[in-house]
Records
---
Amino acid sequence: MGNKKIALVTGASSGMGREFVLQIHKRYPNLEEIWAVARNTKALEQLRKKVPKLRICAWNLTSPQDLQRFQELLEKEKPQIKILVNSAGMGIQKTVEETGLEDLWNTVQLNCTAFTAVLKICYPYCHNGSQVLCLSSGAAFVPQPGFAAYAASKSYVLSFSRAIRKEWKGRAKITIVCPGPVDTPFLEKMGGKEHMPAYKKYFLAKPEAVVEKALKDSEKGKELSVYGYSVKALRVACKILPHSLILKFL
Ligand SMILES: NC(=O)c1ccc[n+]([C@@H]2O[C@H](COP(=O)([O-])OP(=O)(O)OC[C@H]3O[C@@H](n4cnc5c(N)ncnc54)[C@H](OP(=O)(O)O)[C@@H]3O)[C@@H](O)[C@H]2O)c1
């Protein structure tokens, strides 16, 4: 195994992925490189001005050719991935009827297939308690009409990550990050804040706070990182109440 100790962050060009890069840079100065995966090279170049050890990996995670490049680079460099943040994701807040087939397809491809591929590709390079953070969502706890594919994809992330937390025990510490709405460009991409239900706007969290808590929870080896009382309350409600009842209020 090579000696280079790195962090690898997907979705690093924007929102929480970008914030993870900034906080990892400050919090873990011993890391030699931070590999930043996203398609928007300009945004990554801007980020490198703040984080000189950033290595730009301009890959589209839904492209099999780029996943091949990803795998080949790891095989060539054999780094030790001390921190892996699987943050790339997308969501469309519309009914299935209103959503185009391509958007539905891409949501599942990115949030489920690419998410899984990233973990599989990185697995051989995670050792001795590597920190692995998987970005799920409060939407994972219950089906969400008007946000169906996204919520279901995040349930997949939650379920898959819980399973590998057990499989990877002793090798890596998996933490599943389940925020409620967070004020990032994600909200504009999924249709704009104005289309969000009022209760979600009320509980909008800052990416800095969600990411800081996630890194602290990951250091402690926690299974879930849930930021804010509203999402914690939703989680408890989803455990004790029938989903059919909760769905009446969504
Ligand atoms: N914001 C929220 O309210 C919220 C709440 C709960 C959970 N989450 C989850 O948290 C994660 C981060 O969300 P965010 O708010 O930071 O979103 P964001 O600001 O929209 O960032 C999404 C990131 O994913 C990358 N990405 C999208 N498609 C990609 C592709 N095909 N290949 C590679 N990278 C791709 C984007 O980079 P490029 O466009 O440059 O490729 C971008 O860096 C997501 O998984 C999201 O589902 C978000």
---
Amino acid sequence: MIKIYGAKMGSAFRCHVLMLEMGIQYEEVKVDLGKGDQFKPEYLRLNPNGKIPCIVDNDFVLWESMAINKYIATKYNSDLLGKSIEENALIDQWSYWSILEVQANLYSIAFQKFWASEADRDEKAIKKAMDDLPKALKILDNQLEGKEYILGNRFTLADINVATCVMAADFAQYDYSAHKNITRWIAKLNKRPSFEQVPFPPKE
Ligand SMILES: N[C@@H](CCC(=O)N[C@@H](CS)C(=O)NCC(=O)O)C(=O)O
């Protein structure tokens, strides 16, 4: 059985959502970030980055949430993958784009505003992220214009990967409601049983 290291939060959240969407049995292994479990030698042997998520599938170890999701969807031949090489390339495009252009900026704001000490706070980093985010979100909003999902009218892995990046807005207390298509799409995804089972932000 696949083990996912990391609770249903942060970057591990998207791997839990995918497993629930696909109805795959898996084991969640708790890594208490507050207590520093991610830096223990036994965890660093699996993921030298000291971050969650990481999966162990028999003897195979994999980290990076987007790579994990692609591996799981491919291994179990999920219909959440594209129906062609081109559709799969578009899923990759949106996934890599969202982690870099959306999630990284949201985490930068959350880190600088709420997690860093006042002495360490980098106002320039906050400003850069606040300037860059609306441009990125506008690109996503335009893509969703007149469509139910990122690739059209079919829910795919791109929706899980990109939406879970946008949902990091909660950590940053970033308001994206001006982007009407994104707001509508997130509300629709939150009604899916998988997202409902893994509420974000976590309630546990
Ligand atoms: N790009 C990585 C990001 C992983 C990541 O940043 N994980 C955070 C939680 S969202 C973490 O484990 N942080 C612990 C730490 O920095 O000490 C992925 O998508 O898997």
